[in-house]
From TrEMBL:
Residues 81-209 form the AAA+ ATPase domain. One of its GO terms (molecular function) is lipid binding. Plays an essential role in the initiation and regulation of chromosomal replication. ATP-DnaA binds to the origin of replication (oriC) to initiate formation of the DNA replication initiation complex once per cell cycle. Binds the DnaA box (a 9 base pair repeat at the origin) and separates the double-stranded (ds)DNA. Forms a right-handed helical filament on oriC DNA; dsDNA binds to the exterior of the filament while single-stranded (ss)DNA is stabiized in the filament's interior. Belongs to the DnaA family. The gene is dnaA. SUPFAM superfamilies: P-loop containing nucleoside triphosphate hydrolases, TrpR-like. This is Chromosomal replication initiator protein DnaA. GO terms for biological process: DNA replication initiation; regulation of DNA replication. Residues 294-363 form the Chromosomal replication initiator DnaA C-terminal domain. It comes from Candidatus Saganbacteria bacterium. NCBIfam families: DnaA, PRK14086.1. It holds the Pfam family Bac_DnaA_C. Keywords: ATP-binding, Cytoplasm, DNA replication, DNA-binding, Lipid-binding, Nucleotide-binding.
């Protein structure tokens, strides 16, 4: 009986080891000693897929239509066209939902497919543990023998040399084997700081799709879908009221709905507009305080402070003075208004929302480190508040 014969009957067996006693001088051994058992390989699985995150439960709108279509195409034909698929957007906009929907769809079409969803933090921690326990072979076998790899928040591997090195080789192994790779981030590859150029270029090999904040109609549709799935009865005017007040992300929308329903249930009261306003007042107050401040006013005062023309703030001029004035104005607009990143981008010459995000992050750091920038933000904000005394 040979090892391969056993494997044909028991394919799930990881290794076969024969124990052979001392050789008898008057007999021929019946079994040849086998080679040493290989290091155990953790089989890839479909673990970590949230059953709620499917294409059926995803609400499509203008802000995510392209990303949804790309994800659906990948799920229908993995590694056929868009490989890798790189999804990016702000927190709570549906990146994780779309990634896991791909996993569910592939699994439904091919139950034998090896699918793995992980966050970049999980990948990093598992790599560290494998190095510590001298199990890097097991780690590599796990990640390089799967059919669909879904990696969330890939921006967090930036700056981690060993993690980037391992992910680079994992990416190459899967891509060369025609396996599908899907990654997500809060920004496009070119805007991830300290990301190695070789990884950046590979992320751009396939298709990059962004997800923006949902518009009013999409926000209402999201709330209706959430109510339907959760079997909640909420009037349309209540949903419209919530959608008009909460514009940042889907998680806040869904959280607000759950909060209202829970309050009404625990207090045995009806879900009315006054009740909704009362329960969610801490979410609404900042937005109410910001409604009187216009981005045009912010641009005007910022331009005056830096002695540049207002039109230059929206133009594609990149001189240091104008770029600084523009970035400070974007930062102040984000702080003093309820405008989303895409909306602010529109007001500054139709710039992409990721440009605004980058400017705000840069100014957030500059305010703490550069006294001149901190003074500029303070004086511009004070001047704006003088023009809108009832707003803040």
């Amino acid at each position: 009986l040979r090892e391969q014969d056993l494997r044909s009957f028991l394919p799930e067996v990881q290794a076969v080891v024969f124990n052979v006693g001392p050789k008898d001088l008057f007999s021929t051994p019946l079994l040849e000693p086998s080679v040493r058992a290989p290091e155990k390989i953790s089989p890839p699985s479909k673990l970590f897929l949230n059953p709620r995150y499917t294409f059926d439960s995803f609400v499509v709108g203008a802000s995510n239509r392209f990303a949804h279509a790309a994800a659906l195409a990948v799920a229908e034909s993995p590694a056929a066209a868009y490989n890798p698929l790189f999804l990016y957007g702000g927190v709570g906009l549906g990146k994780t939902h779309l990634m896991q929907a791909i996993g569910h769809q592939v699994a439904a079409k091919n139950p034998n497919a090896k699918i793995l969803y992980i966050t970049s933090e999980m990948f990093t921690n598992e790599l560290i543990n494998s190095i510590r326990d001298d199990k890097t072979l097991s780690f590599r076998n796990k990640y390089r023998r799967i059919d669909v790899l879904l990696v969330d928040d890939v921006q967090f591997i930036a700056g981690k040399e060993s993690t980037q090195e391992e992910f680079f080789h994992t990416f190459n192994a899967l891509h060369e084997s025609n396996k599908q790779i899907v990654v997500s981030s809060d920004r496009p590859p070119k805007e991830i700081p300290t990301l190695e150029e070789r990884l950046r270029s590979r992320f751009e090999w396939g298709l990059t799709a962004d997800i923006q904040s949902p518009d009013f109609e999409t926000r209402i549709a999201i709330l209706k879908k959430k109510a339907e799935i959760s079997e909640l009865s909420v009037a349309d005017d209540i949903l419209a009221f919530i959608a008009s007040k909460i514009t940042s992300n889907i998680r806040e929308l869904e959280g607000a709905l759950i909060r209202i329903v829970a309050y009404a249930s625990l207090n045995d009261s009806e879900i009315s507009l006054p009740v909704t306003d009362y329960v969610l007042k801490d979410l609404f107050t900042p937005q109410k305080d910001k409604t009187n401040i216009s981005i045009d006013l912010i641009k005007k005062i910022s331009a005056e402070y830096y002695s540049v023309r207002i039109d230059d703030m929206s133009a594609k001029i990149r001189t240091k003075e104008i770029a600084t004035a523009r970035q400070v104005a974007m930062y102040v607009a984000r702080k003093l208004t309820s405008a989303s990143f895409p909306k602010i981008g529109e007001e500054f010459g139709g710039r992409d929302h990721t440009t605004v995000l980058h400017a705000c992050e840069k100014m957030e750091s500059a305010v703490k480190e550069d006294p001149e920038v901190a003074e500029a933000v303070e004086k511009i904000s004070a001047a704006i508040k003088k023009y809108t005394p009832q707003s803040v």
